[in-house]
Amino acid sequence: MQITDLTGTVQLANGVHMPYFGLGVWQTNEGQEVVDAVTYALDAGYRHIDTAAIYKNEEGVGIAIANNKTDRKDIFVTSKVWNADQGYDKTLRAFDDSLSKLKTDYLDLYLIHWPVKGQYKETWRALEQLYADGRVKAIGVSNFLQHHLEDLFQSAKVLPMVDQLEFHPYLVQQSLLDFCGQHHIQFEAWSPLMQGNAFKVDELVSLAQKYGVSVAQLVLRWDLQKGVVTIPKSIRQQRIIANAEVFNFEITPEDVAAIDALDREQRFGPNPDSFDF
Protein backbone atom coordinates (compact mmCIF):
# COMPACT_ATOMS: atom_id res chain seq x y z
CA MET A 1 0.00 0.00 0.00
CA GLN A 2 1.44 3.36 -1.04
CA ILE A 3 0.30 5.89 1.54
CA THR A 4 -0.15 9.38 0.12
CA ASP A 5 -3.13 11.35 1.42
CA LEU A 6 -6.82 11.05 2.27
CA THR A 7 -7.73 10.45 -1.37
CA GLY A 8 -5.27 7.55 -1.66
CA THR A 9 -6.47 4.11 -2.66
CA VAL A 10 -5.43 0.49 -2.69
CA GLN A 11 -6.08 -1.64 -5.77
CA LEU A 12 -8.22 -4.70 -5.15
CA ALA A 13 -7.66 -8.04 -6.88
CA ASN A 14 -10.10 -7.12 -9.66
CA GLY A 15 -8.49 -3.72 -10.32
CA VAL A 16 -11.04 -1.61 -8.43
CA HIS A 17 -9.49 1.21 -6.40
CA MET A 18 -10.67 1.30 -2.79
CA PRO A 19 -9.88 4.32 -0.61
CA TYR A 20 -7.74 3.04 2.24
CA PHE A 21 -9.23 5.48 4.77
CA GLY A 22 -12.93 5.93 5.39
CA LEU A 23 -15.74 6.62 7.83
CA GLY A 24 -17.55 3.83 9.61
CA VAL A 25 -21.09 4.51 10.81
CA TRP A 26 -21.67 1.61 13.23
CA GLN A 27 -23.81 2.81 16.16
CA THR A 28 -24.44 6.13 14.43
CA ASN A 29 -28.12 6.95 14.75
CA GLU A 30 -30.36 7.11 11.71
CA GLY A 31 -31.52 10.61 10.84
CA GLN A 32 -29.63 13.84 11.33
CA GLU A 33 -26.78 12.26 13.31
CA VAL A 34 -25.64 10.00 10.48
CA VAL A 35 -26.43 12.61 7.82
CA ASP A 36 -24.17 15.07 9.64
CA ALA A 37 -21.37 12.55 10.22
CA VAL A 38 -21.23 11.52 6.56
CA THR A 39 -21.45 15.14 5.47
CA TYR A 40 -18.59 16.14 7.78
CA ALA A 41 -16.49 13.29 6.37
CA LEU A 42 -17.17 14.03 2.72
CA ASP A 43 -16.56 17.75 3.23
CA ALA A 44 -13.24 16.90 4.93
CA GLY A 45 -12.13 14.87 1.91
CA TYR A 46 -13.17 11.34 2.88
CA ARG A 47 -14.26 9.27 -0.12
CA HIS A 48 -15.14 5.97 1.59
CA ILE A 49 -18.28 5.39 3.66
CA ASP A 50 -18.96 2.04 5.34
CA THR A 51 -22.44 1.05 6.51
CA ALA A 52 -24.50 -2.15 6.86
CA ALA A 53 -28.13 -3.19 6.82
CA ILE A 54 -28.05 -4.00 10.54
CA TYR A 55 -26.81 -0.49 11.37
CA LYS A 56 -30.25 0.76 10.29
CA ASN A 57 -28.84 4.03 9.00
CA GLU A 58 -28.51 3.38 5.27
CA GLU A 59 -31.24 5.92 4.49
CA GLY A 60 -29.37 8.69 6.27
CA VAL A 61 -26.12 7.71 4.54
CA GLY A 62 -27.95 7.87 1.22
CA ILE A 63 -29.39 11.30 1.97
CA ALA A 64 -25.99 12.70 2.93
CA ILE A 65 -24.36 11.35 -0.24
CA ALA A 66 -27.17 12.54 -2.48
CA ASN A 67 -27.08 16.05 -1.00
CA ASN A 68 -23.29 16.44 -1.02
CA LYS A 69 -21.38 18.29 -3.71
CA THR A 70 -19.13 15.24 -4.17
CA ASP A 71 -20.14 13.13 -7.15
CA ARG A 72 -21.48 9.69 -6.30
CA LYS A 73 -18.94 8.12 -8.65
CA ASP A 74 -16.15 9.53 -6.48
CA ILE A 75 -17.51 7.98 -3.26
CA PHE A 76 -16.78 4.37 -2.34
CA VAL A 77 -19.87 2.99 -0.59
CA THR A 78 -19.85 -0.30 1.32
CA SER A 79 -22.80 -2.15 2.84
CA LYS A 80 -23.27 -5.66 4.23
CA VAL A 81 -25.91 -8.37 4.18
CA TRP A 82 -27.12 -9.25 7.68
CA ASN A 83 -27.25 -12.76 9.12
CA ALA A 84 -31.04 -13.12 9.00
CA ASP A 85 -30.98 -12.25 5.30
CA GLN A 86 -28.40 -14.82 4.26
CA GLY A 87 -29.08 -17.45 1.62
CA TYR A 88 -29.26 -16.93 -2.15
CA ASP A 89 -32.71 -15.41 -2.71
CA LYS A 90 -32.86 -13.51 0.57
CA THR A 91 -29.47 -11.94 -0.10
CA LEU A 92 -30.60 -10.67 -3.49
CA ARG A 93 -33.66 -9.09 -1.87
CA ALA A 94 -31.55 -7.61 0.93
CA PHE A 95 -29.21 -6.06 -1.62
CA ASP A 96 -32.15 -4.43 -3.42
CA ASP A 97 -33.40 -3.08 -0.10
CA SER A 98 -29.99 -1.59 0.71
CA LEU A 99 -29.76 0.05 -2.71
CA SER A 100 -33.20 1.57 -2.26
CA LYS A 101 -32.35 2.98 1.16
CA LEU A 102 -28.99 4.28 -0.04
CA LYS A 103 -30.64 5.90 -3.07
CA THR A 104 -28.07 4.47 -5.47
CA ASP A 105 -28.17 2.01 -8.33
CA TYR A 106 -24.94 0.22 -7.43
CA LEU A 107 -22.59 -0.42 -4.52
CA ASP A 108 -18.83 -0.22 -4.61
CA LEU A 109 -18.44 -3.08 -2.14
CA TYR A 110 -20.91 -5.58 -0.67
CA LEU A 111 -19.88 -7.87 2.18
CA ILE A 112 -21.24 -10.91 3.99
CA HIS A 113 -21.41 -9.51 7.51
CA TRP A 114 -20.75 -12.74 9.46
CA PRO A 115 -19.94 -16.32 8.43
CA VAL A 116 -23.32 -17.90 9.23
CA LYS A 117 -22.75 -21.65 9.21
CA GLY A 118 -24.64 -23.48 6.48
CA GLN A 119 -25.61 -20.20 4.83
CA TYR A 120 -22.56 -18.25 3.74
CA LYS A 121 -21.77 -20.30 0.64
CA GLU A 122 -25.23 -19.65 -0.83
CA THR A 123 -24.94 -16.03 0.25
CA TRP A 124 -21.62 -15.82 -1.57
CA ARG A 125 -23.20 -17.30 -4.69
CA ALA A 126 -25.70 -14.41 -4.61
CA LEU A 127 -22.86 -11.90 -4.26
CA GLU A 128 -21.14 -13.49 -7.25
CA GLN A 129 -24.35 -13.01 -9.25
CA LEU A 130 -24.65 -9.36 -8.22
CA TYR A 131 -21.02 -8.88 -9.22
CA ALA A 132 -21.54 -10.61 -12.57
CA ASP A 133 -24.56 -8.38 -13.20
CA GLY A 134 -22.46 -5.27 -12.58
CA ARG A 135 -24.58 -4.12 -9.64
CA VAL A 136 -21.60 -4.10 -7.28
CA LYS A 137 -18.02 -3.27 -8.19
CA ALA A 138 -16.40 -5.55 -5.63
CA ILE A 139 -17.51 -8.28 -3.24
CA GLY A 140 -16.06 -9.53 -0.01
CA VAL A 141 -16.64 -10.84 3.48
CA SER A 142 -16.48 -9.63 7.05
CA ASN A 143 -15.40 -11.54 10.14
CA PHE A 144 -14.19 -14.55 8.16
CA LEU A 145 -11.23 -16.30 9.74
CA GLN A 146 -8.79 -18.41 7.73
CA HIS A 147 -10.81 -21.61 8.00
CA HIS A 148 -13.96 -19.79 6.84
CA LEU A 149 -12.08 -18.45 3.84
CA GLU A 150 -10.59 -21.83 2.99
CA ASP A 151 -14.05 -23.40 3.15
CA LEU A 152 -15.50 -20.69 0.92
CA PHE A 153 -12.68 -21.19 -1.58
CA GLN A 154 -13.95 -24.73 -2.20
CA SER A 155 -17.04 -23.52 -4.03
CA ALA A 156 -16.35 -19.87 -4.89
CA LYS A 157 -16.03 -18.91 -8.56
CA VAL A 158 -14.77 -15.46 -7.52
CA LEU A 159 -12.59 -15.07 -4.44
CA PRO A 160 -13.42 -12.40 -1.87
CA MET A 161 -11.65 -9.13 -2.61
CA VAL A 162 -11.90 -7.80 0.96
CA ASP A 163 -12.12 -9.27 4.47
CA GLN A 164 -13.21 -6.77 7.11
CA LEU A 165 -12.21 -7.87 10.59
CA GLU A 166 -11.68 -6.63 14.11
CA PHE A 167 -8.10 -5.38 14.03
CA HIS A 168 -6.17 -3.29 16.53
CA PRO A 169 -2.99 -3.42 18.63
CA TYR A 170 -4.48 -6.05 20.97
CA LEU A 171 -5.70 -8.24 18.05
CA VAL A 172 -3.13 -8.18 15.25
CA GLN A 173 -3.82 -11.64 13.74
CA GLN A 174 -0.62 -11.50 11.72
CA SER A 175 -1.06 -15.01 10.30
CA LEU A 176 -4.53 -14.10 9.01
CA LEU A 177 -3.18 -10.83 7.65
CA ASP A 178 -0.48 -12.78 5.81
CA PHE A 179 -2.97 -15.38 4.53
CA CYS A 180 -5.20 -12.65 3.09
CA GLY A 181 -2.18 -11.05 1.45
CA GLN A 182 -1.18 -14.34 -0.16
CA HIS A 183 -4.65 -14.66 -1.69
CA HIS A 184 -4.93 -11.00 -2.76
CA ILE A 185 -7.69 -10.32 -0.23
CA GLN A 186 -7.54 -6.79 1.14
CA PHE A 187 -7.57 -6.74 4.94
CA GLU A 188 -9.82 -4.04 6.45
CA ALA A 189 -10.10 -3.04 10.11
CA TRP A 190 -13.20 -2.47 12.18
CA SER A 191 -12.93 -1.14 15.74
CA PRO A 192 -9.36 0.01 15.02
CA LEU A 193 -9.36 2.06 18.23
CA MET A 194 -10.48 -0.90 20.36
CA GLN A 195 -13.86 0.75 21.04
CA GLY A 196 -12.03 3.54 22.86
CA ASN A 197 -9.74 1.28 24.85
CA ALA A 198 -6.68 2.24 22.78
CA PHE A 199 -6.55 5.53 24.69
CA LYS A 200 -5.90 3.61 27.93
CA VAL A 201 -2.81 1.73 26.69
CA ASP A 202 0.29 3.32 28.21
CA GLU A 203 2.59 2.19 25.41
CA LEU A 204 0.35 3.81 22.80
CA VAL A 205 0.07 7.00 24.82
CA SER A 206 3.87 7.16 25.08
CA LEU A 207 4.42 6.52 21.37
CA ALA A 208 1.79 9.09 20.43
CA GLN A 209 3.63 11.68 22.52
CA LYS A 210 6.88 10.73 20.81
CA TYR A 211 5.38 11.53 17.39
CA GLY A 212 3.41 14.54 18.59
CA VAL A 213 0.09 13.01 17.54
CA SER A 214 -3.01 11.63 19.23
CA VAL A 215 -3.36 7.96 20.13
CA ALA A 216 -6.05 7.70 17.46
CA GLN A 217 -3.76 9.16 14.81
CA LEU A 218 -0.94 6.83 15.85
CA VAL A 219 -3.09 3.69 15.65
CA LEU A 220 -4.76 4.66 12.39
CA ARG A 221 -1.38 5.38 10.82
CA TRP A 222 -0.17 1.99 12.10
CA ASP A 223 -3.15 0.38 10.33
CA LEU A 224 -2.15 1.94 7.04
CA GLN A 225 1.51 1.02 7.44
CA LYS A 226 0.39 -2.56 8.06
CA GLY A 227 -1.40 -2.42 4.69
CA VAL A 228 -4.82 -2.44 6.35
CA VAL A 229 -7.75 -0.31 5.16
CA THR A 230 -9.29 1.48 8.14
CA ILE A 231 -12.70 3.03 8.81
CA PRO A 232 -12.75 4.80 12.21
CA LYS A 233 -16.17 5.82 13.46
CA SER A 234 -17.05 9.22 14.89
CA ILE A 235 -20.01 11.59 14.82
CA ARG A 236 -18.04 14.68 15.89
CA GLN A 237 -16.79 16.93 13.11
CA GLN A 238 -13.47 17.81 14.74
CA ARG A 239 -12.75 14.15 15.55
CA ILE A 240 -13.59 13.09 11.98
CA ILE A 241 -11.18 15.72 10.66
CA ALA A 242 -8.47 14.89 13.22
CA ASN A 243 -8.69 11.13 12.59
CA ALA A 244 -7.68 11.72 8.99
CA GLU A 245 -4.61 13.80 9.87
CA VAL A 246 -2.27 10.82 9.60
CA PHE A 247 -0.36 11.70 6.46
CA ASN A 248 2.30 14.06 7.82
CA PHE A 249 4.26 11.52 9.88
CA GLU A 250 5.55 7.97 9.53
CA ILE A 251 6.04 5.39 12.27
CA THR A 252 9.47 3.77 12.25
CA PRO A 253 9.70 0.02 11.59
CA GLU A 254 10.89 -0.42 15.17
CA ASP A 255 7.82 1.32 16.55
CA VAL A 256 5.51 -0.58 14.20
CA ALA A 257 7.00 -3.75 15.67
CA ALA A 258 6.52 -2.38 19.18
CA ILE A 259 2.83 -1.84 18.49
CA ASP A 260 2.59 -5.32 16.96
CA ALA A 261 4.09 -6.70 20.18
CA LEU A 262 1.10 -5.43 22.17
CA ASP A 263 -0.98 -8.22 20.61
CA ARG A 264 -2.97 -10.16 23.24
CA GLU A 265 -5.39 -11.91 20.87
CA GLN A 266 -8.02 -9.90 22.76
CA ARG A 267 -11.36 -9.10 21.18
CA PHE A 268 -13.70 -6.25 22.08
CA GLY A 269 -16.32 -7.57 19.68
CA PRO A 270 -17.80 -11.03 19.06
CA ASN A 271 -15.69 -14.02 18.08
CA PRO A 272 -16.44 -15.18 14.53
CA ASP A 273 -16.31 -18.78 15.78
CA SER A 274 -18.88 -18.33 18.56
CA PHE A 275 -21.25 -15.47 17.67
CA ASP A 276 -24.93 -16.33 18.13
CA PHE A 277 -26.92 -13.68 16.27
TrEMBL record:
<protein>
    <submittedName>
        <fullName>Aldo/keto reductase</fullName>
    </submittedName>
</protein>
<dbReference type="Pfam" id="PF00248">
    <property type="entry name" value="Aldo_ket_red"/>
</dbReference>
<keyword id="KW-0521">NADP</keyword>
<dbReference type="InterPro" id="IPR036812">
    <property type="entry name" value="NAD(P)_OxRdtase_dom_sf"/>
</dbReference>
<keyword id="KW-0560">Oxidoreductase</keyword>
<dbReference type="InterPro" id="IPR018170">
    <property type="entry name" value="Aldo/ket_reductase_CS"/>
</dbReference>
<dbReference type="InterPro" id="IPR044500">
    <property type="entry name" value="AKR5G"/>
</dbReference>
<dbReference type="InterPro" id="IPR020471">
    <property type="entry name" value="AKR"/>
</dbReference>
<comment type="similarity">
    <text>Belongs to the aldo/keto reductase family.</text>
</comment>
<feature type="domain" description="NADP-dependent oxidoreductase">
    <location>
        <begin position="22"/>
        <end position="263"/>
    </location>
</feature>
<dbReference type="InterPro" id="IPR023210">
    <property type="entry name" value="NADP_OxRdtase_dom"/>
</dbReference>
